[in-house]
Amino acid sequence: MAPAVAPSKQAEYNSTIRPVGAGAGPRVDPDQIPSVVTVRELNQKYYATHMYPTMEKLCPPVATTEYCAVDQGSSNPKFGRLTLCSVPASADVLATTHLPLGLVLQPFAKLRPDEQEIPVLDFGDKGPPRCNRCRAYVNPFMQFADGGVKFICNMCQFANTVPGEYYSPVDASGRRIDRDQRPELNWGTVEFAVPKGYWKVTPEPMKYVFAIDVSADAVNKSLPHLTAQAIRRALYGPDGGLPEGCKIAIITYDRTLHFYNLNSKLSQAQMMVVTEVDEGFLPLMDGLFVDPEESRFIIEDLLDRLEVLFEDLKVPEPAFGAVLDVAFQALSATGGKVIVTLSALTTWGPGRLAFRDDPRQYHTEKEKVLFSAENIYYKKWGQKYAEAGVGLDLFVFPSTYVDLASVGMVSELSGGEIFYYPNFVPQRDGKRMIAEMSTVVNREVGYQGQLKVRCSNGLQVSAYYGNFYHPRPASDIDLGTIDEHKSIVVMFKYDGKLDAKLDAHFQSALLYTTKSGQRRIRCHNFVAGVTTQIKEVVKFCDEDALLAIMAKEAVQHMASDLLKDIRAGINDKCVQILASYRKHGATTSTPGQLILPEALKELTVLLLSLLKTKALRGGNVNSDVRVFSMRLLKCMPLDDLSLYLYPRIFGLHNLQEADGYVDESTGQFKMPTYVRASLSRFDEGGAYLIDNGQSCFLWIHRRANPNLLKDLFGPTVDKLEALDPYMNEFPEIDTPLSRQVRNIVTYLQDLRGAKALSIQLARQELDGAEYEVSAMMVEDRNNEAMNYVDYLCHVHKHIQLVNVN
């Protein structure tokens, strides 16, 4: 987590190790070592009253901080963050630091209402001005020369002739006279409406296919009913509704495929059944896709009848592979979005799978096979979806193994997302599922996407990480869809040297079609200084971006390397970075001290947290659970990643009077004081919310005060056993504490990405969810890994060994 202003002073922590047998362990005070909680709170306090200017030489705010950025020519860091805000001039300098040079992009990141909206510019049939050599788009860092007749590309330094229609005179300083009227010359992020030369097909408003599992397992879990509620909320709810021209289709499936004619002229939907799923086809086109407003009566009537239609049939074995085929046939000509529910292992129809999760394979060479698709069928469909501009979001509700590595491959390659609900209980989890599916339909999304990243001479793109299809190393990446909750990592390598007198420039260009059917290019521009000084490189390192790249690189190797080797690689990388700083950047170097750069002082605890994620931790973990965590880490944005690794925790039993309300002096919502992620920090008799951005647990001590329970849950609840184990929200009780807590939960929900906030009860010694809470205490010894203090000492010991050698 980078500081608001990168101080020059390094942090030093005495972690001298006792000799073996000299006592109970390292003499380290846990309160004196770097704290994620402290950094988050200080950073949020600073940005409650300050804006972030994008052209000042500051590291971006901590990823979890709520802040307002001012676009001064370099893009808002919500859209993208470089690992190094001061870029090494050569590969040798970078190699010495052991730091990666990369860019974490979130092209559709959501902006605050008080931030600059992205301008949409139309340059007519010729499109936006571009460099004739490297094809970079016009941006604030291009220089105009020869009286405005030429412009010098900031990427490749090529002198281009300004198109006649774009010409403007310049003043004595070389500044265009019309610069203030040109958004593309002032702001780092702009969108260009593009002419037909940029079209793959004629763009049109987005089409959605809802494919609903109605097999036996799905019906037993009330999934048809809940999915119908989710679709109704997404289309007709108070926060729902699609742009004009968007169309939807509804398919249900078990061993057979059921299509519905939703033509508005009918009295009710007509079902057509396809039984030959190995050779799936569309039995109709007219009436398959309809305007949700024109056919509202027909759609709502079908949604009302969905559960009744299949409640007595209960056919096992959903033919998920066949759904992929027919949904693609429906959307291949136009692109669009597929939203599918799945409740069981696909053992019927094309792409059928076998149960292959064997705990005897864990911790062996065979385990890594479980993390990649068993059947090439799913990889091929993922590639087809991406190339056709179709994305797939998959909602999975397993009672047992479903081979998420295989069935989730289409979502990964097409730019979609997986929503995973193990041990699904409709009473507890149904509300969350409805909210999340509604969010998927209504969030900002583009389809038929292609992403290209350009950089200054001396650098080139070396790799991409995320959810997409990359057909060839030198090609653009294909994105069936991309939404506001996805990030993509771009890695760079040197093919020359950078000039320390010039800045380093990076530009991402995302060509896509909007939900309303407009073809656009979204351009983000980033600039960083260039240096030959190692200390300067480390001083302006962005810890959140560094962590994201290390996480995505680690999970990228899960299908090829043993987990123990991946964990060892993370440890080695941490030691190398800190040992290099100690040798080349520290002003003092006392042997008994652990020297941490200010910009990376929480790196050790955050990497320890990464080692404890379900994707990478030791011990026996179901392969579906590992794969889901792996795919989360691959594409989640920085704020979600930071919380996923180190949750926000606060007590409800000791709230201050101002907590849960807006501070009138700053206009900021007042959150409670956060607690470090260790059970030793919990008060006896206390109640705590633990939120990691994906799940939110309410942990209550077994000896909680009855008055606390009454204030939170009502006068009839005076002991833990009286609580409903399937509760998912706080009841509306007329007490000050209840109002504060409900305000806080509402605020946290507004901060969430695609995942809805649903409370899960974890009563001490009563609920199984207590194990999940314990595993989230990353500063404790758990998940077959050290506690924070021991890990810090372990890293220090190996740094000393590296420097001695």
UniProtKB/TrEMBL annotation:
<dbReference type="GO" id="GO:0008270">
    <property type="term" value="F:zinc ion binding"/>
</dbReference>
<dbReference type="Pfam" id="PF04811">
    <property type="entry name" value="Sec23_trunk"/>
</dbReference>
<feature type="domain" description="Sec23/Sec24 helical">
    <location>
        <begin position="542"/>
        <end position="642"/>
    </location>
</feature>
<dbReference type="GO" id="GO:0000149">
    <property type="term" value="F:SNARE binding"/>
</dbReference>
<keyword id="KW-0653">Protein transport</keyword>
<dbReference type="InterPro" id="IPR007123">
    <property type="entry name" value="Gelsolin-like_dom"/>
</dbReference>
<dbReference type="GO" id="GO:0030127">
    <property type="term" value="C:COPII vesicle coat"/>
</dbReference>
<dbReference type="GO" id="GO:0000139">
    <property type="term" value="C:Golgi membrane"/>
</dbReference>
<feature type="domain" description="Sec23/Sec24 beta-sandwich">
    <location>
        <begin position="446"/>
        <end position="530"/>
    </location>
</feature>
<dbReference type="InterPro" id="IPR012990">
    <property type="entry name" value="Beta-sandwich_Sec23_24"/>
</dbReference>
<dbReference type="InterPro" id="IPR006896">
    <property type="entry name" value="Sec23/24_trunk_dom"/>
</dbReference>
<dbReference type="InterPro" id="IPR036175">
    <property type="entry name" value="Sec23/24_helical_dom_sf"/>
</dbReference>
<dbReference type="InterPro" id="IPR036174">
    <property type="entry name" value="Znf_Sec23_Sec24_sf"/>
</dbReference>
<dbReference type="GO" id="GO:0090110">
    <property type="term" value="P:COPII-coated vesicle cargo loading"/>
</dbReference>
<dbReference type="GO" id="GO:0006886">
    <property type="term" value="P:intracellular protein transport"/>
</dbReference>
<dbReference type="InterPro" id="IPR029006">
    <property type="entry name" value="ADF-H/Gelsolin-like_dom_sf"/>
</dbReference>
<dbReference type="GO" id="GO:0070971">
    <property type="term" value="C:endoplasmic reticulum exit site"/>
</dbReference>
<keyword id="KW-0813">Transport</keyword>
<dbReference type="Pfam" id="PF00626">
    <property type="entry name" value="Gelsolin"/>
</dbReference>
<dbReference type="InterPro" id="IPR006900">
    <property type="entry name" value="Sec23/24_helical_dom"/>
</dbReference>
<dbReference type="Pfam" id="PF08033">
    <property type="entry name" value="Sec23_BS"/>
</dbReference>
<comment type="similarity">
    <text>Belongs to the SEC23/SEC24 family. SEC24 subfamily.</text>
</comment>
<dbReference type="InterPro" id="IPR036465">
    <property type="entry name" value="vWFA_dom_sf"/>
</dbReference>
<keyword id="KW-0333">Golgi apparatus</keyword>
<feature type="domain" description="Gelsolin-like">
    <location>
        <begin position="669"/>
        <end position="744"/>
    </location>
</feature>
<feature type="domain" description="Zinc finger Sec23/Sec24-type">
    <location>
        <begin position="128"/>
        <end position="166"/>
    </location>
</feature>
<feature type="domain" description="Sec23/Sec24 trunk">
    <location>
        <begin position="203"/>
        <end position="440"/>
    </location>
</feature>
<protein>
    <recommendedName>
        <fullName>VWFA domain-containing protein</fullName>
    </recommendedName>
</protein>
<dbReference type="Pfam" id="PF04810">
    <property type="entry name" value="zf-Sec23_Sec24"/>
</dbReference>
<dbReference type="InterPro" id="IPR050550">
    <property type="entry name" value="SEC23_SEC24_subfamily"/>
</dbReference>
<dbReference type="InterPro" id="IPR036180">
    <property type="entry name" value="Gelsolin-like_dom_sf"/>
</dbReference>
<dbReference type="Pfam" id="PF04815">
    <property type="entry name" value="Sec23_helical"/>
</dbReference>
<dbReference type="InterPro" id="IPR006895">
    <property type="entry name" value="Znf_Sec23_Sec24"/>
</dbReference>
